[in-house]
Amino acid sequence: MTPAPRACWLAAHGRRLFSVLHLPAAASGGGVLVCPPLFHEHARSYRLFALLADALADCGLTVLRFDYYGTGDSAGEDAEFTLAGAHADAACALAALRERVGKAPVAVLGIRGGAIPAAHCAVHAGSDALWLWQPPASGAECLADLQRRDAHLRALHGYAAGVAGDRALLGFACNPSLPDELRAARMPAALDAGDLPMLVLDAAGHPGPFARTQRIDLAAPLHAWIDQIAMRRVPRAPLQQLGVQLAAQLHAGSAATSRRLASAEPAPGWGSVSHG
Amino acid sequence: MDEILDLGSGTFGLLSCPQGRPRSTAVAVLNAGLIHRSGPFRLGTRLTRALAQAGYPALRFDLPGIGDALADADRPAAEVLAGVLDRVQARTGCARIVLGGICAAADASWQGALADERVAGLFLLDGLARKGIWFRLARWQRLLRKPPGAWWAALRHQLAPADVIESEILRDWPAPGSERGQFQQLLARDVQCLFLFTGGATYFLHPRQLRATYGRGVRNPAVAFEHWPECDHTYYDTRQRQRLIELVGDWLGRRFPQ
Fold first, then answer.
1. What is the tally of structural domains in chain A?
2. Confidence of residue A249 (pLDDT cuts 50, 70, 90)
């Protein structure tokens, strides 16, 4: 039986980060670091990714979820959240996970805007795979989407209309540097990701900018949450199926990388393989 | 400083601890609907930390089936809550506990207070209220302030089949009428009650609904009441969140100074 998730603190360059560790029942076959989405999507998706982490632990993986500094249960004020800080937080969390799983392969999963720190972390801090869940095409697109939703709320609701637009985004106090950071953020398609195996998880028929990347089509309950107004209970069955798929992906990708390194052949890279 | 508090059955909460000598009353903030303990716009995190700064040990945690409490409830909610209060009392030494929160949290806090005598105070944010005549009056008053074109739309809406699920069905409210007796029980125990209704509580439009719902007990000195029609249900505006944090802090300071 998979143990219950364990809450713990991470010390990230003097900043206190809240995290939750999901351990498998037996020895770990690999690890997954979950980089959560930004702003309102963090709370909206919290339960979904807690249950996905549980499903992955059921499949023998060690999963670490964490809150960036200035978000969720981590220390810091809302306006102290920055992209540079998120990059550093993710790298720290990845190091903690590496310590836990030893030489087993590790994937970084970035959700929505969390794809930006996840990609940065996977490329610069080093991981064995990068998984992107409904990612934006770029930091600029992520910002545009947040600003569009913010403007929609302001136009529709009196309670949102009076909020200072230059200091808040979607109800959260916003660091003045964050919009510029997001505009400048590069995504994996534009990053020099080398042969880092990449996987995109998105709704069917939504190829986005990662059309040539290996992908998993998400069932409706797993992708529709971003547009739903009311929060709904998350069904477990599709998450359990997805957990099995992702665990297999991590092990297959790790085996392929090991074979490639052993034979010193040119790397095909998941990022360039078309899976239509 | 927050610390992780083991709540048993594989669950945990975040206890915001005062830096200096703590007061003898602890606070527990419950889930607003399906939102995990950090709350809408991180309100749960900010509120518990602010209360800890004021000297109150303050817990935020997930009820079964929400957030990190992965398993669904396998026992009655009151029993789950009693277990949580046991842990808070054991860790903080506080025998008096204040419960509260938004919407479903207010409903669960109400039930918790009825079931557990350690609950000495409640802050109920968009909690139970019946509509009644004052609600209807306020709705007509609002309508009359609008241009005549809006009157016809409202009339058509009134005559159309109901497509809105009533609060009484969605919420965990006691049978209509029983809230008065329950309220009297709480007042007899001197449970301090802060009622706050926002503009997001679409079932609460007129301040007199409070007395119409709970009876004469609302005049008891143990009761405090606020109506913020300009504010939404989840405190979207950072200024409203700050206002709420200050309100709850001030109320606790007056009602639970020790």
1. 1
2. very high
